[in-house]
Amino acid sequence: MFSIRKANQADFSDIANIHFISWNAAYLNILPKSYINEENNLSEKVEMWERIIAHPDVTVLVAYDGSHDNKHKIVGFIGHFNKSSEYEITTLYVLPEYQCLGIGTQLMNAVLKTIWNTDYSPSLYLWVLKDNVSAINFYKKHGFINSGESSKTLYNDTEIVDIKMIKNSAY
Prior knowledge:
36% strand
């Protein structure tokens, strides 16, 4: 059984580890391996998440396995940043062995509910790799649409393109 709760400062190491493992798995067939090796550093993620969780405008929710054997092992997380009624979903990662169990949907539903309980008319968006078809389909299932806006980064000879997806104010 999986449950959702707000992350606390003690969770930063678990979140960083999930981010590291899931980032490798999610982008292995999408991004150049050298880019993944350069950009996905566990110690940097640990430092990053220790700072992020403490930030007053950031909310991170974690999914944990409440089964007897796992004793509340964190298996996924979602984070969003709030700036003046603009909410950016910055991260959504689930450990590979826990994917396709509905945990991502539980996390997304929980964060959307949290946002709409806080703000009646939020502006909600996220950025996703243009080539990450499974993530794009997941976000579409939750009412996000492509805004037409994109961001491009050049890595060696590879163009990495993120697209902005938006969701209207209806939960």
